[in-house]
Amino acid sequence: MGRASQPSASNSDDHISRDGLFYMALLALQFGFQPILNKEFLSREANKTVVVLVSEITKFFVAAFIVYFINGNARTEFKGWTLRDSLKTAGLPAVIYSVQNILMLTGYNQLDGLTLNLINQTKTIFTAIAVYLVLNKKQSPAQCLALVGMFGASVLLASSGSGKSQGAAEYHAWLFGGVIPVFAASILSGVASAITQRNLQRHNRSSYLFSMELAVYSSIAMIARVLVSGNELSAIAVKGPFYSFPLTTMAPILLQSCGGIIVGLVVKHAGGVRKGFSILAGILLTGLIDNVVAGNPLTTAKLLALPLVLVSTYVHITRPYRAPVEKPKTN
């Protein structure tokens, strides 16, 4: 969940430094392995609110470690910081991201890694819509066509789910316990991204400080959720907060926390457009791991949706909207 405010590399510069290539490879690996590790190490019985809470606390300490011990510019980061300004900037996005994380954890229980990553790419659609509504940032015709392609891929996957071959009950669980939660999480991701972009334009923040703020407010939201939910509070009282939460659960949580930091490093050393290429490589890696290691078959729907998502994502990141150049007036 990293937001990079550091100077980004020029997207038009064809040269990529060794550091840029290294961080791009790390991001591809993180994106590719994340759904696999989540599926493997996150138990269905684990309390999802506790998982999100531990994840947010981990993100806070990762970002704080970088600010204090690696960058060594904590004073600069917190100069002029106020609680009121912080709440205006990160409060609402933090609540939205908290709900999104709960929905994504729900989807991990039902979907294989490739299907989840492909459907999750629809967040590009909702980000584009939300950014247009909030910031009036337009999409080019090619980008609009790419968004249609992404939506078509998600519909294809949803209508040709693996649960259909197992019976109505399994398909119902696959659709309503997997596809729809991830789809809803993608919508929330788009809304939160637009609000975040608007807020960061108004209030100067580094990616690490903003990550720390999001983590604090998301943690508060999760604790409040437990306190107001009688059923969840009772379950924690009976089973304990870390029921079905072995130490291996920290593997995907740590990977996700580091992923946000890697995104910022890719944008800084390789540029925002090339970050999209790392995501493309990650999707391909997820498909390979999902098929070879996890043994999930590449169904017809996946074989059709995979290239559709890859091409659509490529077009969307390489064909941005360019404002028409006004012709000089002649007397």
Describe the structure in brief.
This protein has 331 residues and is mainly α.
Detailed description of the structure:
44% of the residues are buried. The protein is mainly α and 331 residues long. Residues 1-14 have low confidence and may be disordered. It has helices at 18-41, 48-71, 74-78, 83-108, 113-120, 123-135, 141-159, 168-202, 207-228, 230-239, 250-270, 272-292, 300-318. Helix 1 crosses helix 5 (113-120), helix 2 (48-71) crosses helix 11 and helix 12 (272-292) runs antiparallel to helix 13. The chain starts with 17 loop residues before the first helix and ends in a 13-residue tail after the last helix. It is 75% helix and 0% strand. It is built from 13 helices and no strands. The protein is globular and about 80 Å long.
Number of strands: 0
Structural class by sheet pairing and helices: mainly alpha
Mean pLDDT: 82
| Mass-distribution shape | globular
What radius of gyration results from the CA coordinates? 20 Å
Distance between the termini: 53 Å
- Stretches where pLDDT is under 50 for at least 5 consecutive residues are 1-14
Number of helices in the DSSP assignment: 13
Strand proportion, as a percent range, falls in under 5%
